[in-house]
Each structure stands twice: as structure tokens, then as C-alpha cells.
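TICKET: design request
STATUS: open
ATTACHED STRUCTURE:
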């Protein structure tokens, strides 16, 4: 799994990532089936993604409306999906 961007303490709570063998749309649909909403695509960064040689990423956003439990579920669901499909 490749995670893109900076993730220092003061950075935003937006995480873009991509798995080498599971298409971003497929991962998003599988997460959606478990009640987790993520975005896919180029996220208004198409020139950068072109330079990186990728078509798009999965993007998860966390903010005050998310609980720690939801963030932990997102991680666990992602792990479960990758174990089964990747």
C-alpha cells in the first residue's frame, strides 16, 4: 500500500492511498459495502498523479465528525478487504 502526501502532526486529516493490485474503485465499493465512505479519483490533482504515473487514489477524510472507533473500523475493514482480495 502506498500512502501519498505528508502526514506530520500539523497536517490535514486527509489520507490518499493506493494498493498495487486492487483498483481504487473496487476498494471504495468494498469499503462502502461496510458503511465506510471514501472518495476515489484524481482529487483535482491530475497533473501530479500523471507525474506519479497513477490514474487515481482512494482518499479518506477524518474530522471532528468522526470518532476514533470509526477510524479504527476503517483501518480494520481495509485490512480485511486486502487480506481477502489483494
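STATUS: resolved
RESOLUTION: sequence designed for all positions
ATTACHED SEQUENCE:
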Amino acid at each position: 500500500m502506498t500512502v501519498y502526501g505528508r502526514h506530520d502532526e500539523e497536517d490535514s486529516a486527509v489520507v490518499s492511498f493506493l494498493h498495487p493490485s486492487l483498483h481504487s474503485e473496487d476498494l471504495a465499493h468494498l469499503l462502502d459495502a461496510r458503511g465506510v465512505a471514501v472518495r476515489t479519483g484524481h482529487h483535482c490533482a491530475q497533473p501530479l498523479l500523471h507525474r506519479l504515473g497513477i490514474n487515481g487514489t482512494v482518499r479518506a477524510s477524518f474530522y471532528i465528525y468522526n470518532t476514533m472507533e470509526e477510524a479504527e473500523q476503517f483501518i480494520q475493514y481495509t485490512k480485511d478487504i486486502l487480506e481477502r482480495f489483494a
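CLOSING REMARK: The helical segments are 24-32, 46-52, 68-85. The chain has one domain: 2-85.
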